[in-house]
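Agenda item 2: guanosine-5'-triphosphate complex prediction
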Amino acid sequence: MQVKTFTAKDAPSAMARVKAELGGDAVILSTRKCAEGGRSWCEVTAALDSQPPKARPAAPAPDEAPAPGWGEWHREWDQIKAHLTALMRPQLDLGALAPRQRQALEHLEGEGVGEGAVMALAAALRADRQASILAPLGVMVAAAPLDARHWPQRLHAVVGPSGSGKTTTLLRMALACQQARPGARILLVNADAAQAKGRMFLKHYAELSGITFREAASPRDLAGVLAAGQKFDKVFLDLPPVGAGLTLEGYLKLLGLSERDDLAVHLVLSPLYASAQLSSYLRVYKSPKTASLVWTKLDEACNYGDIVNAAYATGLPVSALSFGSGLRGTLVPAKAIMLWKLLFKHELPQSPIEENRGRYAH
Ligand SMILES: Nc1nc2c(ncn2[C@@H]2O[C@H](COP(=O)(O)OP(=O)(O)OP(=O)(O)O)[C@@H](O)[C@H]2O)c(=O)[nH]1
Ligand SMILES: [Mg+2]
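Presented output:
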């Protein structure tokens, strides 16, 4: 992430410098008119995502990580945490921050970012009044774009709540892989036997695209399909929502997948859930194998604070963003700059397909 301040005689000239140096993808963080000794000028601070972030977010401290299991005490613990945060809030001297840092934090709060994450960001900013909000935010919310370089695993599974967009995400992942690696042998496996619609959908598009499709109705079937699928370069696995009273960790054990080191599990979520619901999903679906978060239905959301909340609670990077129900041009590998545009400008990622450009901006 490059953050740079540009100075020019007026705002249009400063913006022209931003565009010339950082290009059209730059996000404007602040614009300031300055005057001194009869001289006036304009300062524009802009950011550009130049490289994937080097540092993965630090693993959350044990007391921040979602606890395994499910029960009444989770709700109580959430309430205790909320009270503690409310008590700590007055200690958080936002006045010690630079105005633009404070504005950025207030914007994030309005966006639905929870108090825990806001306080952690404020604490990081207090150390440096010059620092851009994107510095601590980039550490808290990492992007690991869903491509072969970042995700070399052979087996990719999607998990998540019912209707979150798992099946459509999986199919778009398989199609993107086919496009990126023509000739690659790809296997699509449906292990969600209860969902006739999703199964037919996957089967239909797999056949149309020349991708091999298999079904597995039980853990035994799945073991057989995966064993027989050794010759495939990439295997994409559609898993059903985890049943009541179970956690993903337990469910993966049941399926014989918990020890596989060629497996990456992507948790598919949308920012449309209430915050208690999101916390409960994160508890259920955080497991040693959960490797990334895929955000869907961004086109239907009115704010995006949950992207920060989920990253803060789990320490997981965001791998892909989905912003439409169609199959083409609606799922993109996540980049940090796309997250900042969502959070600060409500701007959806641009579709890679020319004819869709601009359709989704709001
Ligand atoms: N607007 C919008 N709709 C989406 C997006 N992603 C998926 N959908 C739609 O959401 C609905 C559910 O998607 P699925 O992929 O079937 O979700 P699922 O998680 O597999 O659902 P179950 O298998 O029933 O648990 C479908 O109508 C999709 O077209 C998105 O990014 N934006
Ligand atoms: Mg499905």
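Discussion summary: The pocket of guanosine-5'-triphosphate (ligand 1) is lined by residues 160, 162-168, 192, 195, 198, 241, 296-297, 299-300, 322-325 (CB under 6 Å).
Owner for follow-up: CH.
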